[in-house]
Write a structure and sequence with these properties.
Layout (H helix, E strand, L loop, with lengths): L3 H12 L4 H13 L3 H14 L4 H13 L3 H13 L5 H13 L3 H14 L6 H4 L39 H16 L1 H6 L6 E6 L6 H11 L3 E5 L1 H4 L6 H15 L3 E5 L15 H15 L8 E7 L15 E6 L5 H12 L9 H6 L6 H22 L7 H9 L5 H14 L7 H10 L1
Parallel strand pairs: 1-4, 1-5, 2-3, 3-4
Helix pairs in contact: 1-2, 2-3, 2-4, 3-4, 4-5, 5-6, 6-7, 13-14, 15-17, 17-18, 19-20
Length: 439
């Protein structure tokens, strides 16, 4: 059915193809009408003329999300967030995408940030992820009188055996964290303390959170995943208190693993901190890592980030995050294992997991999940038409893979620049090696 507005916008663009505001208006109009594929193409055309335009990039993320492409949408959103160009709409979009991918901690943090910018935002599912406000006495309103972190530590059952690939990363974690706990006398004899920090970095969706959880499960330690929304508070001094209380609880529950996801939001460079309050939070975090108020032996701190170049350099000093480990996209055996896990419990007949892995070079775990979901959706449509359950096949998966672009590409484009031109101390040599191997 003809649309007079779209027709007029297209006609105007044909006469003035470099008119960016007009091109963005066409893209937004397409998106509002549910024509997300056409909207994606229109936003891409706008970005060809203005590659760093924040509105065009935000629109492209929205077009991705409307098509169920949560991985690519998150890559664009995370770039805008890291650059400080994300408004409430982008944060809300990223929160919903993270919720659909199953990462409730990230979704809650992003939704909290979105609502701080636009209190009128409402989403019952995301609102349920927000932490209850603290009372003036620092409690969370629980009438039982339990402390904020009491009972929050879990005992994961996941182990390294359930983490496909990443053998080099797992070996580093064994030497830094696991063996010191299993053989404390040996490490003590060499003057090595039990505990410390490791920073995991790499593209989104590649298993950094799973690896942290498996580390705790490997040594039967307590585990607490800390969302940034659990720490940051609008009241001056409360964020520092939250950090202090968190580390105090962790020390009381040793051995345990504290996991900070998207740690760059909490530990960004103090040169970039616009307010003194932000610098104070960073200083408090550094003090806790040093164990100023209590010994950190037996306290294991893992952190993950997609943008390690935003971290304050002080976090890389010995005794803090003195090991920085690159977590690349899963290799071929790991991709086959991930597909096998994602298909568990679904009707799948004789799927060649290795063949699917070969067709998905560079895909993250989140990308592989998108492939499986698209293949399942296609097979369900066929089953509904046939009136009987039909098994998912290798062809279904390889066809679905053709419609999913690896979300890691955009990350590597950014990481490559940092590895080439801002690689102080060789922190990003692993990125260059990985890129060299893939050429």
């Amino acid at each position: 059915m003809p649309d007079p507005l779209l027709d007029s916008l297209r006609a105007a663009l044909a006469a003035t193809p470099d008119n960016l505001p007009l091109r963005l208006l066409l893209a937004r109009s397409l998106l509002e009408r549910g024509q997300s594929v056409e909207a994606e193409a229109a936003f891409r055309a706008a970005l060809e003329r203005a590659p760093r335009d924040a509105e065009a990039r935000a629109g492209l993320a929205a077009a991705f999300a409307a098509q169920g492409k949560d991985g690519p949408a998150l890559v664009v959103c995370e770039e805008l967030i890291a650059e400080g160009q994300a408004g409430a709409a982008v944060l809300a979009l990223a929160a919903r995408a993270q919720l659909r991918t199953g990462d409730q901690a990230k979704a809650g943090r992003l939704w909290k940030s979105a609502k701080e910018r636009d209190p009128a935002l409402s989403d019952s599912e995301l609102d349920g992820l927000l932490p209850r406000p603290l009372r003036s006495d620092g409690s969370d309103g629980d009438e039982t009188g339990r402390g904020r972190w009491d009972g929050a530590f879990e005992r994961p059952r996941t182990s390294f055996a359930e983490v496909g690939g990443m053998e080099a990363v797992k070996e580093e974690i064994r030497m830094k964290i696991i063996l010191p706990l299993e053989k404390p006398e040996l490490f003590k004899a060499y003057g090595q303390r039990v505990g410390g920090g490791i920073l995991l970095y790499g593209p989104p969706g590649c298993g950094k959170t799973l690896l942290a959880r498996a580390t705790a499960g490997q040594v039967s330690a307590g585990f607490l995943s800390v969302a940034i929304s659990d720490v940051l508070d609008m009241y001056i001094g409360q964020s520092e208190r939250n950090l202090r209380d968190l580390f105090a609880s962790a020390r009381a529950n040793k051995p345990c693993v504290l996991f900070f996801d998207e740690v760059d939001a909490l530990a960004s460079s103090r040169r970039d901190a616009r307010h003194s309050a932000g610098r104070q939070v960073i200083n408090q975090f550094l003090a806790e890592l040093d164990g100023v108020d209590g010994g950190n032996d037996g306290l294991l701190v893992l952190a993950a980030t997609n943008a390690p170049w935003h971290l304050d350099g002080a976090f890389r000093r010995p005794g803090r995050f003195d090991r920085i480990l690159f977590v690349p996209p899963p290799d071929q055996p790991a991709r086959a294992a991930i597909v096998r896990v994602l298909l568990a419990g679904r009707p799948a007949a004789g799927v060649d997991h290795e063949a699917v892995a070969k067709r998905t070079e560079g895909f993250s775990g989140a990308d592989l999940k998108a492939v499986v979901e698209q293949a399942v959706a296609a097979r369900m449509r066929a089953a509904l038409a046939a009136g009987a359950i039909e098994p998912i096949t290798t062809r279904d998966l390889t066809d679905a893979a053709k419609g999913v672009k690896p979300s890691t590409r955009d990350w590597f484009a950014t990481a490559r620049n940092h590895a080439l031109y801002a690689n102080e101390g060789g922190h990003y040599d692993d990125v260059l090696r990985w890129l060299g191997e893939k050429r």
